[in-house]
Write a structure and sequence with these properties.
Oligomer: heterodimer
Largest sheet of chain B: 5 strands, mixed
Pfam families (chain B): PTS_EIIA_2 (PF00359)
Strand order of the largest sheet of chain B: 1-4-5-3-2
CATH class of chain A: Alpha Beta
Largest sheet of chain A: 4 strands, parallel
CATH topology of chain B: Mannitol-specific EII, Chain A
Strand content of chain A: 15-25%
Strand order of the largest sheet of chain A: 2-1-3-4
Order of helices and strands of chain A: EHEHEEH
Subcellular location (chain B): Cytoplasm
Number of strands of chain B: 5
CATH superfamily of chain B: Mannitol-specific EII, Chain A
Distance between the termini of chain A: 12 Å
Keywords (chain B): Cytoplasm, Kinase, Phosphoprotein, Phosphotransferase system, Transferase, Transport
Structural class of chain B: alpha/beta
Main location (chain B): cytoplasm
CATH superfamily of chain A: Response regulator
Distance between the termini of chain B: 9 Å
Order of helices and strands of chain B: HEHHEEEEHHH
Protein name (chain B): Ascorbate-specific PTS system EIIA component
Shape of chain A: globular
């Protein structure tokens, strides 16, 4: 699975989110590659899942790729439970 | 080492700011005084929020303003500013902001180490809460040094 974290510039918030998502991926033992980028390049990134701040919800609305939004980038529990919910819904 | 990036020269505590723009300006001016950015970088940080929203408020009470490297960033660097009175940035959940940590990156990759250490530090809620409350720069600097020693 390829996970992409995105933010406006693609080098600040998304990078921090990427690190925390990576921690969660390791903790859950998922076979996933985590990368970060900006919103404008996210659409054609080939990612299976996108994580972003709640702020970007509107910009990501018409994406075909599933999007998870988080409000607190530093809260690994929030990130973890949202990724787990996503995987459950996906049936994995 | 967090104490390597946040030194006595780039920390200001208990600063007054009437709104989020002034908070970013004052935070950015620390980077400018330390010769890490050109003045235009500060405007670019403000534009970024106007343009893309207050998503830079990454965790309750803490904003991380920044702009693209080509907007006048000279080197990688951080500045830390705490506000006397918190201000709203326009984030639905993480407002109001008490701590403003601005950063500049010379390019898209070399700042990774700096941000990764910052993220490690901010992940611990007690650290964020400590920064929100502390009013002595000396105490904050020794807090950073102790944190680095403990790692």
């Amino acid at each position: 699975m390829k996970i992409l974290t995105v933010c406006g510039a693609g080098q600040g918030s998304s990078l921090i989110l990427k690190m925390n998502v990576q921690d969660v991926v390791d903790e859950l033992g998922l076979d996933a590659e985590v990368d970060n980028g900006n919103i404008s390049t996210a659409k054609n990134s080939g990612a299976d899942l996108i994580l972003a701040g709640e702020f970007h919800e509107d910009a990501l609305e018409d994406f075909e790729v599933p999007v998870i939004t988080v409000s607190d980038f530093m809260d690994n529990e929030e990130i973890k439970s949202k990724i787990q919910n996503f995987l459950e819904e996906k049936g994995e | 080492m967090i104490s390597e990036y946040l030194t006595k020269d780039n920390i200001r505590l208990g600063v007054e700011a009437k709104d989020w723009k002034e908070a970013i300006k004052k935070s950015g001016s620390i980077l400018e005084v330390n010769n890490l950015i050109e003045a235009e970088y500060i405007d670019a940080m403000i534009e970024m929020v106007k343009d893309k929203g207050a998503y830079i408020v990454i965790t309750p009470g803490l904003a991380l303003p920044h702009a693209r490297p080509e907007k006048g960033a000279k080197e990688n660097g951080l500045s830390l500013l705490t506000l006397k009175e918190p201000v709203k940035f326009g984030h639905s959940k993480n407002d109001p902001v008490k701590v403003v940590i601005s950063f500049c990156a010379a390019d898209d990759s070399t700042h990774t180490q700096m941000l990764s250490e910052l993220a490690e530090f901010l992940k611990v809620k007690e650290n964020v809460n400590y920064i929100k409350e502390v009013d002595s720069k000396e105490e904050l600097l020794s807090y950073f040094e102790n944190y680095d020693r403990g790692r």
